Amino acid sequence: MMIYFVLIISELFHAFAHTLVLFNYYSIKRLSLYNRRVYFFFDLVSVLLSYYIVRENHILVSIHLIIHILAILQLYVNYSSFFNDVHQMAEMKYFDKSYFVIALYIIGTSEDILVHLINSFYLLQKIQI
After folding, report:
1. Do 107 and 22 form a contact (C-beta atoms < 8 A)?
2. How far apart are CA 55 and CA 61, in angstroms?
3. Which residue of 70, 88, 114, 129 sits 20 to 30 Å from the alpha carbon of 54, by its own alpha carbon?
4. pLDDT for 44-90, tens place per residue?
């Protein structure tokens, strides 16, 4: 039962943190590369553990998984100009990005927030049963 509470807090924390970054109240510029890797890793683990427990939200979790594996890979090997742009936008660097890339960033981050919130909801339902 304790794992449910830990995961709910983790999911809500990640939803809140992504919201702050999306609306430019916080920049990941302050985070070292190591801390970025740890943050994205725990973001991914939180979603996967929540999914393992609730077995709901298949499509959004799958999308989240793909995006985060590629984003984490970008933090180890600079392989993609798109994910480089994504990390730069999380640092509030929008000035040279196309509207299309900005739109994808907003959609992807919104999907990320939604995954965390939906997982929190399903975990809360598990506790009430």
Report:
1. no
2. 10
3. 70
4. 999 999 999 999 999 999 999 999 999 999 999 999 999 999 999 99
**Is the Cβ–Cβ distance between 83 and 109 less than 8 Å?**
no
Q: Residue holding tokens 């039962």?
A: 1
Rounded distance, CA 129 to CA 59, Å? 24
Predicted TM-score (pTM) of this structure: 0.94
Radius of gyration of the chain (CA): 15
Alpha-helical runs (H) found in the chain:
2-22, 33-54, 58-76, 81-90, 99-128
* φ, ψ for residue 96, nearest 5 deg: -110, 20
**53: region left, alpha or beta (phi > 0 left; psi from -120 to 50 alpha):** alpha
